[in-house]
Automatic annotation (TrEMBL):
Domain AAA+ ATPase: 50-185
Superkingdom of the organism of origin: Eukaryota
Upper lineage: Eukaryota, Fungi, Dikarya, Ascomycota, Pezizomycotina
Name this protein carries in UniProt: AAA+ ATPase domain-containing protein
Organism from which the protein derives: Penicillium alfredii
Coiled-coil portions: none
Length: 266
């Protein structure tokens, strides 16, 4: 694989309004991005450096990726997405070159966000990494330490396994803004359901509050999956009856039985 293939600029289309709940996270991320762009002089006057890095951790399917995309869209930032596993799978020396290339691209495209999904793949504790892994991590730390050059480049990393990360990565000046993104609470679940319903045709016999109560412990991704399974059941019925259907309570009841809860299941 060539270094270039793994690095691409994206223009995400996700808006804050596409994400149910997580209001505190949205606010904190907005601040990390907007303050340095809007008030660089104020920050200089008070001798405060802008944050260079954010670490998002939490169970899978709970909107980490979605949140970073929305941040880029709403703040008008260029967005580079990289998966840790992709970087690690490259040839010796290629991973490091690719990493440097990502940072170079991000600087050229600033203001920008570099999003490292599955950061644990390249930033596991050095004691437990292969030699190749250590070199990649060192390159990442070096790139992050270039202070001035990284102005208006925000590095955001995501992981489901924060415990395996090398602590050096979270030192001040690196990924020192650490945010937990957990499973959606009742309000968030209701919003996720509402967002989906607003783009579908849902029968009035469906009680979204009720559904939000019944989906305690489900991830955002699982809730969307329930909605789509319900929608699919309505489509099945449409084919059988040859009559247009909306998505009804019975379809959701069926879907609830189909989609398993994974993140909080014993
Ligand atoms: P992973 O750790 O598996 O990469 P993630 O936390 O990055 O997961 P996302 O990719 O952001 O999860 O979410 C997966 C999908 O779940 C989204 O594309 C969206 O359909 C749905 N989803 C998750 N959380 C929410 C939410 N709060 N509001 C709306 N949709 C959500």
């Amino acid at each position: 694989p060539t270094a270039m293939r793994e690095v691409f600029l994206e223009t995400p289309k996700v808006r804050w309004s596409d994400i149910g709940g997580q209001h505190e996270i949205k606010k904190r991320l907005q601040k990390a991005v907007e303050r340095p762009l809007k008030y660089p002089q104020r920050m200089r006057r008070l001798n405060v450096n802008s944050k260079k890095g954010v670490l998002l951790y939490g169970p899978p399917g709970c909107s980490k990726t979605l949140t970073v995309k929305a941040l880029a869209t709403e703040a008008g930032l260029n967005f580079l997405a990289v998966k840790g596993a992709e970087i690690l799978s490259m040839y010796v020396g290629e991973s490091e070159r690719s990493l440097r290339e990502i940072f170079r691209k991000a600087r050229a495209a600033r203001p920008s966000i570099i999003f490292f999904d599955e950061i644990d793949a390249i930033a596991a504790r050095r004691s437990s990494s292969s030699q190749g892994g250590v070199n990649v991590l060192t390159t990442l730390l070096n790139e992050m330490d270039g202070i001035e050059e990284l102005r208006n480049v925000l590095v955001i990393a995501a992981t489901n396994k924060p415990d395996v990360l090398d602590p050096a990565l979270m030192r001040p000046g690196r990924l020192d803004n650490i945010l937990y993104i957990g499973p959606p609470d009742f309000e968030a679940r209701r919003e996720i359901l509402r967002i989906w319903a607003s783009k579908s045709v849902v029968n009035p016999d469906v009680d979204l509050d009720d559904l939000a109560s019944q989906t305690d412990g489900y991830s955002g991704a699982e809730i969307v999956s329930i909605c789509e399974t319900a929608g699919d059941a309505a489509l099945d019925e449409e084919e059988e009856t040859m009559q247009e259907q909306d998505v009804q309570r019975k379809h959701f009841d069926y879907a609830l039985g189909q989609v398993r809860r994974q993140i909080t299941d014993a």
